[in-house]
Structure prediction request, 254 residues.
Amino acid sequence: MNYINQMTIKFDSLSINEGFARSAVAAFCVQLEPTLDEITDIKTAVSEAVTNCVVHAYPKKIGTVEIWVGLTEQTVTIIVRDSGVGILDLERAREPFYTTKQNEERAGMGFTVMESFMDSLELHHNTGGGLEVVMTKKIQSKKQMANSGING
Amino acid sequence: MQINARVIQDTLYLSLCGELDENSANYVRTALDKQLTNTLCKQVIFDLSELSFMDSTGIGVMIGRYKKMKERNIPIFISNPSVHIDKIFKMTAMYEIMPKIN
Prediction:
C-alpha cells in the first residue's frame, strides 16, 4: 500500500489518554475530508482499542500503547499495538458479549463495535507479546466526490 | 463529565453531559448511583442529549445501573441519544432492557 501520509503516537496506558488518542487520530484523518459520521466512527473504534489496552493488556501496570495511522487518498488504516498480556483465543475474544471481566460491568462489545464502525478488523499476536489491532475504513471523501462529479 | 438530576412528578431525569469512556466511567457510576440509590421516583430517564461521546464502556455502565434498578422494579428509559450512540445501543440490543423514548 502506498500511503500518502503516516503518523505514529506512543503514550502510557492511562485512561486519561483515551480522549487524547481518539482526538489525535481524528485530527490526523481530517485531511481526507471525512464526514462527521465517519470521524465519529473512527473515534469510537480507536477508543475501544485503547480501552482494551488500558483494561486488559496492562491490568496491573502502566505499559506503552502505540498507534500508527496510514492514509491513502480514500482509506484510513489504524494499527493499535501493545506489549501486554495478549489474548490466547482471538476468535473467542471477537464474539459479541464475551468478556473476561464479568464482575466489572463490562459489556464485552469492544471488538464488535470496532468491527461494525470500521470496514475491516484484524487481530494479530504481537511478536514479543501483546496484541496488534488492524482496522481500515474507506472515506467517502468530499474531495473525491467533487472530483468525480458526484457532489459539487 | 457532569451528571444533572431533576425530578418531575414521579420521574427522575438524569442528564449525562460530556464524554463517557473508561476514563470517566467510575465517576459516572458513582454519580448516577448517588441519585438512584435513594430515589422515590417510579421511573428513570437517562437524557443523553448532552452526551457528546460514548463507547462500549458506557454500555457496561448502563447495564450495571439497569441491574440495580431492576431489583426495585424501577424502569430506566433512554432519551435523545446522538446518532452514533444510538448505533451502539442498537448494536448491543440495549433498547430491549432500556427502551428509547421521545
